[in-house]
Write a structure and sequence with these properties.
Blueprint (H helix, E strand, L loop, with lengths): L23 H11 L3 H23 L2 H18 L9 H23 L13 H9 L6 H18 L2 H12 L4 H8 L3 H19 L2 H5 L8 H15 L10
């Protein structure tokens, strides 16, 4: 369990500390959603889906669990969005809800699995992948990148918990050190240390491939975005209206 879990607040009615000027468009959408405009909430979901999904997955390490967690978090956010006052970015406010929900999901899963041993999967043959990557690019390049992307996902999942979420937020979502520290409520030097250590651990496993294939990690296809949005709106009693895929 993340060391900082005890400090994360579950009461989302408490405004977050001011980190930066709020995004006017996000704040306007939040106000409309607070007034019951589901189309505005749909835009919020589509705008922040990928970052929030990646955040949930970094904690849960399972795609289906991450989707379920994100849907539950969105429902919580919709019910409490009237309390959003713009003291922090809407993305930060939403991510804190997702983190709390993911940690709760993980605690419940741990209790259910207490009597069931879980076996780990076999490691991928890194030497074979390195040899493949060293070859002259050809028709197999896309397949290789897909395989490397899947390998990176597995290696990120294997990082110690205290490093994993920091890495996802900093490397994949490109949040700043300050934003990451604010979101996770840890000191900025701790963010830097954990991020450096996470990259070192990954490089030990992936060598040159980590930088070449990082953009393919945790791909967030339009179908997943649409599925999450449709499920949340269905539970809120409204059909999706937007046509973009998030």
């Amino acid at each position: 369990m993340l060391q900082e879990e005890a400090t994360w607040k579950s009461d989302m009615t408490v405004p977050l500390a001011r980190a930066s000027a709020p995004d006017a468009s996000d704040f306007a959408l939040a106000q409309r959603a607070a007034a019951g405009d589901l189309s505005a909430f749909e835009q919020i979901m589509r705008r922040h889906n990928r970052m929030l999904y990646r955040t949930a997955r970094s904690i849960l390490r399972d795609e289906a669990d991450a989707e379920d967690c994100l849907q539950s978090a969105y429902l919580l956010a919709y019910r409490s969005i009237v309390t959003f006052a713009g003291h922090a970015k809407l993305s930060t406010w939403l991510a804190r809800i997702v983190i709390n929900e993911a940690l709760g999901h993980k605690r419940r899963a741990a209790r259910r699995a207490a009597l069931i041993p879980i076996e780990g999967g076999a490691d991928t043959d890194l030497l074979a992948l390195e040899a493949l990557a060293a070859e002259t690019p050809g028709p197999e390049t896309e397949a290789m990148r897909h395989e490397l992307g899947a390998l990176i996902e597995r290696r990120i999942d294997a990082l110690p918990e205290v490093f994993r979420t920091v890495f996802v937020l900093r490397a994949l979502e490109e949040l700043s050190v300050e934003e990451t520290a604010t979101l996770l409520e840890i000191p900025e030097p701790t963010v830097r240390t954990r991020y450096f250590r996470a990259r070192s651990l990954l490089r030990e496993s992936l060598a040159r491939e980590v930088d070449a294939a990082l953009d393919d990690a945790f791909a967030f296809a339009g179908a997943r975005c649409d599925r999450i949005v449709a499920a949340v709106l269905g539970r809120l009693g409204a059909p999706p209206a937007a046509t973009d895929t998030g």
